[in-house]
Amino acid sequence: MANANANANANDEVQKHVATITLSKLVPSEYRMWVVQAEATLGVYDCLEIVRGNEQNPTPPINANGNLPAINAALRIRINDWNRRHALAREALLRCLQPAEMIKVYSVRENAPAIWTRLHEEYGQVLDIEYIRADMRLPTLLNNYTSK
């Protein structure tokens, strides 16, 4: 049991110091499959909830005096960890894009959740529309096929 805990702790330390996360290149026509793979990879590195926008930056907002409130040691650790994971996710997302896709996220390039959302808006919704069109045509096609 002690050996298993030592291995788990060693793996945690390795993940804390990962230099980069590698996602497969985004091919727009294969967006849904890319999302499945990207979510799995980002989850392994504890970055998925950041990218989804569910894990917010723990840095407290600037107070009414225009100053950042005092940050204790525990909060500083959380902030540093979040910033590190956000930077890893952001870099991974930007590195998986071809120039044509990079242009579409350029205005939100500093924010991993915004990149993720923009890609979904650009490719996920288009695929949804195509799916709906195909689904609507299916009964007609089936009717034509069975009436022959």
Characterise the protein shown here:
Helices cover 66% and strands 0% of the residues. By secondary structure, it is mostly helical. The chain has one domain. Helix 4 crosses helix 6. The mean pLDDT is 85.
Spell out the key features of this protein.
6 helices; elongated; mainly alpha; 148 residues
Q: What is the number of E strands?
A: 0
Shape: elongated
Distance between the termini: 68 Å
Reading the helices and strands in chain order gives HHHHHH
Largest sheet, strands/sense/barrel: none
Number of helices: 6
Quick structural summary:
It is built from six helices and no strands. The model has no long low-confidence stretch (mean pLDDT 85).
List the helices and strands and how they pair.
Blueprint: H1 2-16, H2 31-44, H3 48-51, H4 73-95, H5 99-105, H6 112-146
Helix pairs in contact: 4-6
